């Protein structure tokens, strides 16, 4: 419970900061909405121009996009700042302060570095999701709605695990921004579209090596009654929760290994 109360204390600090700088927060929110809105618009133009991509139509691709963005927003609230700032914190020695606290250093870090800037991502993804589901005439019953929420949270665990994993090399190699860009942003661009459009080796990589396909491609087919599993089993549409939990636990274990091998700048 101490972590829950600590988390809410940091959230209150964030809210106070927002009210202190309302204009800056609003401008940042608008800028993020415009940026991702433009990205979505370009994606829409591509799909609308060609009518469909490998049997996937515009609103189906929009749902893929929305689920990816929504899970990214939820994960980034807690893990984006720790992931992207870790190398700089290690370089300037401020990470040592995290280790002096009588708390789990991982939980303390993600609570302290909560980033409200991803609210725009969440808003845009929810709007896009609503539009896609409405135009696809998808009506979810109670259990399907519950599973949909679980899938979004599972996607957040996968994205969160990825954010943790790309930060871990910072314990050994401080300058690794290129690795982060390739393994996270560039690799995740593939799931803007159905992975069935890619060669088999890419599909395998996105399923078993960097399992981003479980964020949206596999589970979305359950909700829209699609059957585009290529050479994978239809069972994969239900595996996102398992993949998310296992991957996040693995990422945390590797984080602990990194901490145990960390050499302070003052040592």
Automatic annotation (TrEMBL):
Alphabetic keyword roster: Membrane, Transmembrane, Transmembrane helix
InterPro entries: ABC-2_transporter-like
Transmembrane regions: 24-47, 62-81, 118-140, 146-174, 195-215, 235-255
Keyword Repeat (UniProt): no
Record flagged with keyword RNA-binding: no
Pfam families: ABC2_membrane_6 (PF06182)
Protein name, entry field: ABC transporter permease
């Amino acid at each position: 419970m101490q972590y829950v109360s600590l988390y809410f204390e940091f959230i209150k600090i964030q809210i106070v900061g927002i009210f202190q700088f309302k204009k800056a927060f609003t401008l940042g929110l608008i800028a993020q909405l415009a940026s991702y809105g433009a990205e979505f618009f370009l994606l829409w133009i591509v799909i609308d121009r060609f009518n469909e991509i490998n049997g996937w139509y515009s609103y189906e691709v929009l749902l893929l996009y929305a689920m990816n963005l929504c899970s990214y927003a939820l994960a980034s609230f807690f893990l984006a700042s720790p992931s992207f700032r870790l190398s700089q914190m290690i370089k300037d020695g401020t990470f040592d302060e995290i280790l002096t606290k009588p708390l789990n250093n991982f939980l303390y870090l993600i609570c302290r570095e909560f980033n409200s800037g991803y609210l725009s991502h969440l808003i845009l993804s929810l709007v896009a999701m609503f539009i896609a589901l409405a135009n696809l005439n998808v009506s979810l019953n109670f259990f399907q709605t519950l599973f949909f929420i679980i899938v979004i949270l599972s996607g957040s665990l996968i994205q969160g695990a990825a954010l943790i994993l790309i930060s871990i090399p910072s314990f050994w190699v401080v300058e690794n921004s290129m690795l982060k860009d390739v393994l996270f942003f560039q690799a995740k661009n593939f799931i803007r579209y159905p992975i069935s459009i890619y060669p088999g080796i890419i599909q395998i990589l996105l399923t078993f090596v960097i399992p981003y396909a479980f964020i949206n491609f596999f589970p979305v087919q359950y909700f829209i009654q699609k059957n585009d599993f290529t050479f994978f089993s239809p069972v994969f549409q239900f595996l996102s929760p398992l993949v998310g939990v296992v991957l996040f636990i693995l990422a945390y274990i590797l984080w602990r290994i990194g901490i145990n091998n960390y050499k302070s700048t003052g040592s």
